[in-house]
User: Which sequence fits this backbone?
């Protein structure tokens, strides 16, 4: 079992997990521990797959890393900052500044246009959209091939288009870390490949680290490294450089 | 051009409201109706009350000083106006040291005008007509500040000298006289004088138009056998609801009987108070209903927007700002509802003031909207909107983003 020191040794870790545990229903008869002590690192710029059977705790781990819920025990650092003892406000700032999310069900804001969805992280961070934010959003939508759909409401786009908007949105503040939970989960193979290629492209180009949950072994194989979860424990961490 | 110009909270609050079309329309309708009812009712009641008070005080002094002995006599009659014109069986008495009391009254704070009056019963005779009247000896310059006689004059000026007399339009009709004619006046004590009518007034009250006869103080004193005396002192105060306090102070200072319009019209005052209480009751209920409406619609909206809230949180929105978004929705609904509510109230006033008119065609109330009432209703609506949004907003803030995203 490899303690998760990434192959990109020498590069600082964007995420560092030590003994991370998560229980649900604490204090109730149905208390269950979902993650049983995870030790792993993700290096800056790393492109990593998180795999494992259904129910193994992948989404839970991603939500912990994304600071959407607190671990029950253990230590988690994001971008070099320990999250221990941070209040909701500080966690929100840390999340907003460094992390972009892509979810399986694209989760766009249906009342807003594609362009507004892409600008939203910037609007949240800056209070109001700046000209610069708009330029970035136009640029990103062009990159994901949706220039002609900028002013469509999110709900009027196809699933693949919505997921591309979601990727553009995740990138809008150039975060150092992108967390993607089955980003291609409900897309056909061809579209899934496109989406995956986009993530890979942005990773190479901007150096954003990516942690991608996927059930697709084909896609997992195309990542720099694979972290496998089984029943809430780290089963294996394999990388392209040193295959298991 | 393409980028939204609004700050985050406004942008999201407005978009959420716009998205929930039906709900937003319904709640706006509710707030509009509520504000309109409150503004319209308040305006109506304020106007009617001030009209009633104006009418009552239009021909009546705010405060009247009388000799002590009059107490028994006065107990039989209610409004001061009828008390003044009531024929008195007893011999008239003057107020002792009335000049000193006039001075005392003038020095009181809150007193605008003081006018000594010589009044008593008399008969106006012409040909075979004989009418019972109330003779009022006054100094016009002082008295016109008690009762706005200048505005009531139909013919001639409110001026008296020598044997001039100013009478009401009804008395003139009854006696068949007009300006320039002569009227014979006989006081109860038997003294009489031939008076020259130099003016006619219409005070808006038939009874007074039939009974009041104004002359100089001097003439009234000699006719009523009150040499150098006055029978009452009329007083105008700044704040009409301060009248009873002024009366109490004057009574303590002078030892005379001092009454305010508030005691002589206590039933009217009680009726006005009851009206205000029921208006407040209606207002409170409307506010509660509107608040509950806003609250319930926003609670539903929070549940519907669970996913969006989760997404916004994941993108770096703090729970406080989520709370702000929903508080703002309450405020916006309250604000817009207040604007349209005030507009609706204004429209209702226009319509009702043309529909409801007095017998002679004058509107019962003015179609004007008091800025104070409109502003305070708008302020209340805004506050109610924010307060009503408090519970939904806190629910939204507490919402677990993970729960929303997993779903
Ligand atoms: N809020 C919760 N309360 C109780 N149990 C939970 C909660 N959230 C997740 N779990 C449990 O934690 C375990 C891991 O769930 P998780 O969603 O992380 O799995 P996963 O690896 O993402 O599965 P999948 O591949 O199906 O998405 C599951 O057994 C799940 O039932
Ligand atoms: Mg999952």
Assistant:
């Amino acid at each position: 079992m490899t303690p998760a020191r990434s192959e990109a040794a020498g590069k600082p870790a964007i995420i560092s997990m030590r003994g991370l545990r998560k229980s649900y229903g604490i204090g109730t008869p149905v208390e269950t521990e979902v993650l049983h002590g995870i030790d792993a690192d993700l290096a800056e710029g790393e492109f990593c797959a998180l795999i494992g059977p259904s129910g193994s705790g992948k989404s839970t781990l991603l939500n912990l890393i994304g600071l959407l819920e607190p671990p029950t025990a253990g230590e988690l650092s994001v971008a070099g900052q320990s999250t221990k003892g941070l209040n909701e406000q500080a966690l929100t700032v840390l999340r907003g500044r460094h992390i972009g999310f892509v979810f399986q069900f694209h989760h766009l804001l249906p009342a807003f246009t594609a362009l507004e969805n892409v600008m939203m992280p910037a609007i949240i961070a800056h209070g109001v959209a700046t000209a610069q934010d708009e330029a970035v959003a136009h640029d990103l939508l062009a990159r994901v091939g949706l220039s002609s759909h900028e002013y469509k409401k999110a709900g009027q786009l196809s699933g693949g288009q919505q997921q591309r908007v979601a990727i553009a949105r995740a990138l809008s503040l150039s975060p150092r870390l992108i967390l993607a939970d089955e980003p291609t989960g409900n897309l056909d193979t061809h579209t899934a490949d496109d989406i995956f290629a986009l993530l890979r492209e942005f990773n190479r180009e901007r150096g954003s680290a990516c942690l991608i949950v996927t059930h697709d072994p084909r896609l997992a194989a195309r990542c720099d490294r694979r972290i496998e979860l089984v029943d809430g424990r780290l089963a294996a961490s394999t990388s392209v450089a040193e295959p298991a | 051009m393409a980028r939204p110009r609004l700050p985050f909270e406004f942008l999201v609050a407005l978009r959420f409201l716009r998205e929930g079309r039906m709900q937003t329309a319904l709640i706006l309708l509710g707030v509009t109706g509520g504000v309109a009812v409150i503004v319209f009712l308040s305006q109506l009641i304020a106007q009617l009350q001030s009209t009633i008070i104006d009418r009552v005080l239009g021909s009546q002094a705010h405060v009247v000083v009388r000799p002590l002995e009059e107490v028994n006599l006065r107990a039989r009659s209610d409004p001061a106006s009828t008390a003044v014109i009531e024929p008195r069986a007893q011999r008239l008495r003057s107020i002792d040291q009335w000049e000193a009391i006039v001075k005392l009254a003038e020095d009181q704070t809150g007193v605008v005008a003081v006018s000594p009056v010589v009044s008593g019963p008399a008969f106006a005779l012409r040909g075979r007509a004989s009418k019972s009247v109330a003779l009022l000896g006054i100094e016009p310059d002082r008295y016109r500040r008690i009762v706005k006689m200048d505005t009531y004059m139909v013919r001639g000026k409110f001026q008296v000298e020598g044997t001039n007399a100013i009478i009401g339009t009804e008395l003139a009709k009854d006696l068949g006289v007009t300006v320039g004619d002569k009227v014979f006046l006989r006081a109860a004590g038997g003294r009489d004088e031939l008076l020259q009518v130099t003016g006619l007034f219409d005070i808006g009250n038939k009874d007074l138009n039939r009974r009041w006869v104004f002359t100089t103080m001097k003439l009234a004193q000699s006719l009523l056998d009150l040499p150098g005396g006055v029978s009452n002192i009329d007083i105008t105060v700044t704040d009409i609801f301060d009248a009873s306090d002024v009366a109490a102070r004057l009574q303590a200072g002078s030892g005379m009987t001092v009454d305010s319009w508030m005691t002589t019209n206590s039933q009217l005052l009680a009726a006005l108070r009851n009206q205000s209480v029921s208006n407040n009751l209606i207002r409170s209920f409307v506010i509660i209903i509107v608040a509950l409406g806003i609250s319930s619609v926003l609670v539903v909206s929070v549940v519907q927007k669970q996913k969006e809230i989760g997404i916004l949180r994941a993108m770096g929105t703090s729970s406080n700002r989520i709370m702000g978004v929903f508080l703002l929705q309450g405020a916006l609904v309250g604000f817009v509802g207040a604007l349209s509510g005030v507009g609706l109230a204004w429209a209702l006033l226009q319509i009702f003031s043309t529909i409801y008119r007095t017998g002679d065609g004058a509107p019962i109330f003015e179609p004007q909207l008091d800025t104070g009432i409109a502003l305070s209703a708008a302020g209340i609506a805004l506050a109610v909107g924010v307060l009503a949004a408090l519970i939904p907003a806190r629910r939204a803030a507490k919402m677990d983003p993970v729960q929303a995203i997993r779903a």
